[in-house]
Write a structure and sequence with these properties.
A hairpin with a 5-residue loop joins strand 2 (180-187) and strand 3. Helix content is 46%, strand content 10%. The longest helix has 26 residues, at 251-276. It is an alpha/beta fold. Strands 3-2-1-4-5 form a 5-stranded mixed beta sheet.
Length: 345
């Protein structure tokens, strides 16, 4: 029976008690300012100093800022730091969330926002032959071991991923039996990444990645005045120098030694990249997302190198045992012989 003195219908006391018991309380976590730490702590956690993180925040703000301030939305600085922690550690998403006091889904969204935003700056920070003048690049390489006219060293590295589902799973199995993305990179003498191709499965050979790249097309058209240095897994071309397969004592041996010392820059770059961003040791994401993360880490590596952030100490890894390619072009052999004659005899 309704009460004439109460406009709203009465609620049974039992229903009120049940609602009170099962009510879900909102938990607003205390998110500390990620920049309120010493530089040494920030570099260890995020691989960037306070000034570097502020620079990235200002750079990426138009692409990652939240469209609302409701429910204590993440700030741009928090979003960037969450992604940097993941890139630096490569740990599980829930571990990043526990460290940054956010949920797993928020971590996933933050990482995706940041790596997609960094892809917009690929053409700004990854430029071939370099953001420096070509003559400066050549002088830097020549100072290493006396190898002339070099504008880049090139190689491929495998980034391990989890086995993708579907019928194309076998395409990602590399020669060592693991699943990976085969990534081609070029660097200058200062370990700046100047070109990156991150779209090929692990079963594809290095030489095929180069042949089908835009960089190869540009060299074939004569767009660049200089040469690349590669290992014996590539074919020797007029603009692409590789070692002698069976060098004679004397000039050819000195040529191979100078090429190896100069080409070690790309191995150092791979080591710095993977040591700075531990997520590249193994990515537990789908192949397309793995490629985006690799590109984002390459952009971040260049930003850190240009800003002179702390460089991780790495050891140059030995070359993989690739099957040599015996398809050297006559023009490539002639150019190699000229270099030996004029510089190593």
């Amino acid at each position: 029976m309704s009460c004439p003195f109460v406009r709203e219908p009465p609620i049974a006391e039992g229903a009120r008690l049940i609602r009170r018991v099962f009510r879900i309380q909102r938990i607003l976590r205390d998110r500390q300012d990620p920049l309120a730490q010493r530089d040494s702590v920030l570099i260890e956690r995020y691989r960037f100093s306070r000034e570097g993180i502020i620079y990235l925040t200002n750079l990426l703000d138009p692409h990652v800022k939240s469209t609302t301030h409701r429910s204590r939305a993440l700030t741009t600085a928090q979003t960037v730091c969450i992604a940097l922690r993941y890139f630096a550690s490569g740990t599980f998403l829930y571990a990043c969330g526990d460290a940054e006091n956010v949920g797993k889904s928020a971590v996933c969204r933050a990482i995706r926002k940041v790596y997609l935003a960094l892809k917009h700056f690929l053409g700004v920070f990854v430029v071939f032959p370099s953001h420096l003048r070509p003559q400066v690049v050549k002088q830097g390489f020549f100072a290493i071991a006396g190898f002339p006219n070099v504008i880049g060293t090139i190689d491929c590295t495998h980034i391990a991923i989890k086995a993708p589902p579907g019928p194309n799973e076998g395409d990602f199995v590399n020669r060592k039996g693991g699943h990976s993305i085969n990534v081609q990179m070029v660097c200058d003498s200062m370990c700046h990444i100047t070109n990156v191709e991150a779209k090929w499965p692990g079963s594809v050979h290095d030489s095929r990645i180069f042949r089908e790249s835009g960089l190869c097309t540009s060299f074939e058209r004569g767009a660049y005045d200089g040469i690349l240095l590669g290992d014996r897994g590539y074919a020797c071309r007029q603009y692409f120098m590789t070692p002698f397969p069976d060098p004679n004592p004397g000039p050819q041996t000195r040529y191979n030694a100078a090429l190896a010392r100069t080409r070690a820059r790309i191995e150092m770059t791979f080591g710095q990249l993977k040591e700075r961003f531990q997520c590249l040791k193994r990515l537990r994401v789908a192949p397309d997302r793995a490629c985006d993360i690799i590109v984002a880490c390459a952009v971040l590596h260049n930003i850190a190198t240009i800003r002179e952030e702390r460089t991780p100490v790495v050891e140059v890894q030995p070359d993989d045992d690739l099957q040599p390619v015996h398809l050297d072009q006559p023009s490539g052999r002639a150019a190699r012989d000229r270099i030996v004659q004029h510089n190593f005899e």
